[in-house]
Amino acid sequence: MIIIDYSDKRPIYEQVAEKIEALILNGILEPDSKLPSVRSLAMDLSINPNTIQRAYSELEREGFVYSVKGRGNFVKMNENLIIKEQEKLMIKFKEHVKELKARGVLKEQVISCVEEVYEEVSK
Question: Is the pTM of this model over 0.90?
Answer without folding.
Answer: no
